[in-house]
Amino acid sequence: MTTTNGASVLQTVVLAVLAVKNAITESVQSIDQETKEVWFRGGVLARRKGVRQPEAIVRAKSRRRTARWRAKNDQARRPEAATIGMALLRAVVSAKRIDLSAEEQGIVGAALVDLHRQGYALREVLAVCRRLRRRVLAEGGPVSS
Predict the structure, then answer these.
(1) What does residue 50 show for φ and ψ, rounded to 5 degrees?
(2) Which of the residues 49, 75, 109, 115 could staple to 120 if both were Cys, CB 3.0 to 4.6 A apart?
(3) pLDDT value for 53
(4) What integer pLDDT is reported at residue 9 of this predicted model?
């Protein structure tokens, strides 16, 4: 008697699941039908698909965009981030360590930590800084007193 009762409960659950799946399928079909009938696009303003420009043209346009961007930066006398970074590095390597405040030393330390996290060897980073310091001092660059 329990197996029959258990089987009928299982059958009821299966039927309920099938009913839910059918309702979802009908809802999806109804939504898709409405989309086709009401919200269709005529093609006048539709995006063109599959039309690709040759790679040489895409690259030439990219070069033109970059040249335009650089020219506008030059006209506005706007430096790139790399230029600012090099100016800051030149200032740091030309300063005497004793002249740097604790806050400035913290900034330099944070930069070294960041470079280390990026995978650079601190020994090599410091070697680059020493070479740049020698070059800056040889050029007669500013040295904090």
Answers:
(1) 80, 0
(2) 115
(3) 86
(4) 84
First to last CA, the chain: 100
Closest CA to 122 of 109, 135, 134, 131: 109
Reduced 3-state DSSP string for the chain: CHHHHHHHHHHHHHHHHHHHHHHHHHHHHHHHHHHHHHCCCCCCCCCCCCCCCCHHHHHHHHHHHHHHHHHHHHHCCCCCHHHHHHHHHHHHHHCCHHHCCHHHHHHHHHHHHHHHHCCCCHHHHHHHHHHHHHHHHHCCCCCCC
- For the chain (145 residues), the mean pLDDT of every run of 10, in chain order, is 69 90 89 82 68 88 94 92 90 87 91 92 92 89 53
CA atoms within 13 A on the CB side of 134: 5
Q: How far apart are CA 27 and CA 30, in angstroms?
A: 5
Structure tokens at 117: 């996290």
Residue type (1 letter), 124:
E
Tokens of 39: 């919200």
pTM for this entry: 0.51
